[in-house]
């Protein structure tokens, strides 16, 4: 199960809405081994596409150096879908290279009155949806 604060949930959704009609993407980092998302890191979709996202390779290198310096890891890897449901595409699955991360998808498709916010584990090409628990703060 993904446990996330309301603030982080809302920031991910706001980023997805702001970048629409292009897909938004980013990471929420947390202390290594904690499984606790804490630091919101919106990224630029280098593809600038409504159907595909790609982290800029230079930004990604800087991000991973920063995570190492802070003893953090990507707890959440998120992106949005602008015209389809919040479910990993074949491309999303093939690019999922953080087996310990929660993969959050937010759909900003017009067919949904409110953005869909769903979380998945993706390990060795296997997608497993997990519940999302939104809390006011971590106890």
Structure characterization notes:
The chain is of the alpha/beta class. Helices cover 24% and strands 35% of the residues. It has 3 helices and 8 strands. The chain has helices at residues 6-19, 57-69, 90-95, and strands at 2-5, 25-31, 39-43, 72-81, 102-107, 116-123, 126-130, 132-135. The strands form 2 sheets. The chain has a 6-stranded mixed beta sheet with strand order 3-2-4-5-6-7. Strands 1-8 form a two-stranded parallel sheet. A hairpin with an 8-residue loop joins strand 5 and strand 6 (116-123). It is globular and about 40 Å long. It starts with a strand and ends with a strand.
In short:
Helices cover 24% and strands 35% of the residues.
Q: Helices and strands in order, then pairings?
A:
Blueprint: E1 2-5, H1 6-19, E2 25-31, E3 39-43, H2 57-69, E4 72-81, H3 90-95, E5 102-107, E6 116-123, E7 126-130, E8 132-135
Parallel strand pairs: 1-8, 4-5
Antiparallel strand pairs: 2-3, 2-4, 5-6, 6-7
| Shape call | globular
- Order of strands side by side in the largest beta sheet? 3-2-4-5-6-7
Largest sheet at a glance?
A: 6 strands, mixed
According to DSSP, the number of beta strands is 8
What structural class do you assign from the helix and strand content? alpha/beta
N to C succession of SSEs: EHEEHEHEEEE
Residue runs with pLDDT of under 50 for 5 or more positions: none
- Mean of residue pLDDT values: 96
Helix content: 10-25%
Q: Nearest-angstrom radius of gyration?
A: 14 Å
> First CA to last CA: what distance?
16 Å
